[in-house]
Amino acid sequence: MTLSDTFEIYKESKETQLNIDKEIIDYYIESYRSLEMSEDQPTQSKTDLLSKKRALKNDIDDFYKKTYTDERKIYYEDNAITKLKFYKMLILIVYYSILGIYIIFGGFFSNKKYKNIFVLLIIALYILFPFLLSYIEYIFN
Question: Which of 119, 92, 97 is nearest to 107 (CA)?
């Protein structure tokens, strides 16, 4: 073995050692970078989670507000419908009471108007008119 052969072997062993050292250093650098990124990630994840939490909380609050508003609206609409039904019934009572008052006090029996076809037709139309209005309303709605 000559000096140049020994030098070549020495050179190759040092290159191999340097390559191994380089790989170790690269591994440590990569580990450091991943560690650095993982330290930043929790704060970033926490920020993302907090913003998602705020958005979800706002959505839930909006849903509850809308639901509460809808419930109030339904309550007031039910009250309005109940009042309208009461007024309708009251108007029908007054309407048919006027017919009863006419028949009792209007000379319907004393003047024998019950024999007149025209008067009976008017009374029949008077009685059927509310039903006809309800039917017409049903057809157009």
Answer: 119
> Which residues, at least 6 apart from 92, have a Cβ–Cβ distance to it below 8 Å?
130
Residue-wise pLDDT tens digits, 26-43: 887 787 777 766 655 666
Q: What is the pTM for the complete model shown? A: 0.52
pLDDT digits (tens, 9 = 90+) for 73-91: 888 899 999 999 999 999 9
**CA pair distance 63, 75, nearest whole angstrom:** 18
Distances (CA, A) of 44 to 17, 37, 128, 132: 40, 10, 76, 71
Of the candidates 110, 140, 108, the residue with the CA atom closest to the CA atom of residue 122? 108
Give the Cα separation of 95 and 134 in Å (integer): 15
User: Which tokens belong to 43?
Assistant: 């704060």
- Give Cα 96 distance to the centre of its chain: 46
